[in-house]
């Protein structure tokens, strides 16, 4: 039985990939089903799950929608600290907002 997983072969970029046991250090190995693939087996080197990026994206979007840190943490099932850290990181040092200087009237 072959179980297709949503993974792309880094060598030939085929998505016809099946699980192929584990490497000596316990990483999931994959077997590429493409006959022309130069390697056929590979181990994903990416340590961060894809979910991390999605969560980051959601934090930004929810913030833009006016959600508070606690709301975001509750919805995404992460700690408020994580939310705050992400917001600090994403807060790009953009050009300072034009401040409406209140000219002193006499
Ligand atoms: Zn391949």
Give a description of the structure.
By secondary structure, the chain is an alpha+beta fold. The protein folds into two domains: 1-46; 50-90. 32% of the residues lie in helices and 13% in strands. The protein contains three helices and three strands, in the order E-E-E-H-H-H. The protein has helices at residues 50-64, 69-76, 80-90; strands spanning 17-22, 28-32, 41-43. The chain has a three-stranded antiparallel β-sheet with strand order 1-2-3, with no helix packed on it. Strand 1 and strand 2 form a beta hairpin. Helix 2 (69-76) crosses helix 3. The longest helix is centred in the middle third of the chain and has 15 residues, at 50-64. It is elongated and about 80 Å long. Bound molecules: zinc ion.
Brief summary of the model shown:
This protein is an alpha+beta fold. The protein has helices at 50-64, 69-76, 80-90; strands at 17-22, 28-32, 41-43.
Mean pLDDT: 80
In terms of DSSP E residues, the strand content is 5-15%
Largest sheet: 3 strands, antiparallel
Q: What small molecules accompany the polymer chains?
A: zinc ion
Q: Would you tell me the structural class of the helices and strands?
A: alpha+beta
Number of helices: 3
CA radius of gyration is 23 Å
Total number of domains: 2
Side-by-side strand order of the widest sheet: 1-2-3
What is the distance, rounded to the nearest whole angstrom, between the alpha carbons of the first and last residues? 85 Å
Low-confidence stretches: none
Q: Globular, elongated, flat, extended or rod-shaped: what is the shape?
A: elongated
The H-and-E topology, N to C, reads as EEEHHH
What is the oligomer described by this structure? Answer: single chain
Number of strand segments? 3
Percent of residues in helices comes to 25-40%
């Amino acid at each position: 039985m072959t179980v297709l997983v949503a993974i792309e072969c880094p060598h030939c970029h085929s998505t016809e990939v099946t699980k192929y046991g584990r490497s000596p250090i316990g990483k999931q190995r994959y077997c590429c089903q493409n006959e022309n693939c130069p390697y056929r087996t590979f181990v994903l080197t990416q340590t961060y799950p894809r979910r991390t990026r999605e969560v980051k994206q959601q934090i930004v979007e929810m913030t833009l929608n006016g959600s508070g840190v606690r709301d975001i943490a509750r919805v995404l099932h992460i700690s408020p600290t994580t939310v705050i850290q992400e917001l600090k990181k994403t807060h790009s040092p953009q050009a300072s907002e034009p401040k409406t200087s209140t000219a002193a009237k006499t």
